[in-house]
Specification:
Length: about 350
């Protein structure tokens, strides 16, 4: 038996590439007490501090690490409220330089008022200037003909006007909406507001607190859900197609599969790795081009969910995308990984300094 096995490419169905720079960031001065405080004290401050250089090098690092783990396509959800215009081009450029496929979106929100201050949003609130710029960025990028989705942060941070406009834009360009739904209790009941807009092209991310069905692909992010202590989503209860994402932790989708199995088994002893395995490979339905990508692993039984679920030290040796080797013998072929990590570290330090100064 050969000591390697070749599969098609993996898909991260929900990523936040900008979070690559969050590693090692200083702890917030106020310890989060619940999920909303995690957003307010960490992620919403971080995305507000991003600039062009940070966006590029965070995407480059995330894309490089994706290839190292066999992921050949990233469906990215980006937010940088003080650096919106051109942000999707920057992410596309970084991923293209690495050699990976990317389907980006800009996550519009009304949570920042026109003076740049956080605000609570009501369904009847007017659309903010930031949401309009975000939708314009989406329209500009989609007009180029490159694959993309229309991004929305979450229903609880968007007015009805913003949700409707985003839905109309997606329909105009024959694509879907990429949106966090019922991740935490603050967004519980979001499906009631979204039901009249959603269709099969939508990515319904998280769905931890869904109370009723909603049409679209549900993207399960078990590592992130555990990290944020929002609960177990029980995605198997829904008849939707289920895919796996990382929610920005990294792009290692085999690790996500393994935890998806463990989380399912912890909830129900009858949960089979075959189901989590199906979720993993459902990503190829979202990015069909990955079915022609080739990923070579150092383990001979990558065709068996029962083997992979219990096997450590899985490594990728080679990756071919569009008949071009972008990873060969464990080394990236188009870029210098050490240089990417060095540049990303520089931007990480800039970001962390900016966050410290904003406290």
């Amino acid at each position: 038996m050969t000591n390697t096995h070749t599969t098609t490419g993996l898909v991260c169905a929900h990523h936040h590439l900008y979070s690559s720079l969050a590693r090692g960031m200083p702890a917030p001065k106020v310890a989060p007490r619940h999920f909303l405080s995690v957003l307010e004290n960490i992620w919403w401050k971080l995305d507000a501090a991003l600039d062009h250089d940070m966006i590029y090098w965070s995407a480059a690092l995330g894309a490089a690490e994706a290839l190292l783990s066999g992921t050949t396509a990233i469906i990215d959800h980006h937010e940088s409220p003080n650096c919106i215009e051109g942000s999707l081009d920057i992410i596309h450029a970084a991923c293209t330089d690495i050699g990976i496929r990317v389907i980006p979106c800009y996550g519009v929100t009304d949570r920042w008022n026109d003076e740049g201050k956080l605000q609570k949003v009501k369904s009847t609130s007017p659309m903010t200037r930031g949401a309009k710029i975000g939708l314009a960025e989406s329209k500009r990028y989609l007009s180029s003909g490159r694959p993309a989705l229309v991004g929305v942060h979450a229903a609880f941070t968007c007015s009805d006007e913003t949700l409707e406009t985003a839905s109309e834009l997606a329909t105009q360009f024959h694509t879907g909406v990429h949106i966090h739904v019922a991740e935490g209790p603050d967004d519980q009941g979001a499906e009631d507001r979204l039901q009249k807009y959603a269709n099969e092209d939508w990515l319904i991310v998280h769905g931890v607190h869904l109370q009723k069905p909603i049409v679209g692909t549900i993207v399960h992010n078990p590592r992130s859900n555990m990290n944020n202590s929002v609960g177990y989503a029980r995605p198997a209860q829904w008849s939707n197609r289920i895919a796996l994402g990382s929610d920005g932790i990294d792009s290692n989708m085999m690790a996500e599969f393994q935890l998806a199995f463990v989380a399912g088994r912890a909830d129900d002893i009858s949960f089979s790795p075959d189901l989590a395995w199906e979720w993993l490979w459902n990503g190829s339905h979202l990015v069909p081009e990955t079915q022609s990508d080739l990923v070579t692993w150092n383990y001979p039984r990558m065709d068996s969910s029962w083997h992979v679920a219990y096997t450590t030290s899985l490594h990728v040796t080679d990756v071919s995308i569009n008949n071009e080797y972008v990873l060969s013998a464990g080394n990236l072929t188009k870029v210098d990984l050490k240089e990417i990590r060095r540049k990303a570290e520089e931007q990480s330090q800039r970001l962390h300094h900016a966050l410290a100064m904003s406290e």
